[in-house]
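Feature request, filed as a ticket because there's no other form

It would be nice if the structure record came with a short human-readable summary line next to the tokens. Right now we just get the raw output. Example of a typical job, pasted below so the devs can see what we mean:
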Amino acid sequence: MTTPDEVPGNGGVPATPRARVLLDSDGLITEWSEGAEALLGYGPEEMVSRPLWSLLVRPDPAAEPAGPDAPPAGDDRLVLLRDRAGRPVETTWHMYPRLTPEGPLTWVVLLARADAADPGDFDCAVLDALLTEAPIGLHLFDTDLRLVRFNTASPGMRHVRPEDVIGQRGAVVAPRLVTGDLEELLRHVLDTGQPLIDFVQQGYPPADLGHEHVFSMSAFRLCDRSEQVLGAGPSPST
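Raw output as currently delivered:
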């Protein structure tokens, strides 16, 4: 049986997408995902009801692992698994128990090729580029509408030093642009999750206080993986 692969993010489980394999209490495979098939080449019909440990490449082939405690549960472990062509594949292995009130303890094993790029690194690179290089307006506020980060390359904030404005409310950073009406709209975004789209706002940005600009304001709510609200991300464009 195949299952969707996971992008875990809580409970100590890594945030990198992994191929998921489900095991019963005896360590036998009950579900084999498409990602696992892509990683190792075996189809579900070959792997279901088979012990996952049988794929481990061990110095002594006669030495059998001791069930679901080897490799141990918890943080990522580097292991060698043998693919369908007989080649060893260096793999990150993350295992944790799956507790359900209906049945016995089962196990989830998350596998990924060890040399695969971490999407979390890619996400960080994209965010850094948006906040330092892209010539667009992007500002990140916390739930009290205090500035957390902003794009230093945006025309409205160019030459503004982060240490002078981080931690201050938007109305303090840009008092001739961030009005009470705009703050109310941002609070509505925070409270409801409904994005603000193309709200027209006139004002004077910190980088050009001598000229009035007309901005089209959009904003979205920011949440972590547990749906905890972190803040709002308004993005003005001229």
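Something like this underneath would help us a lot:
DSSP finds six helices and twelve strands in the chain.
The first helix runs from residue 34 to 40.
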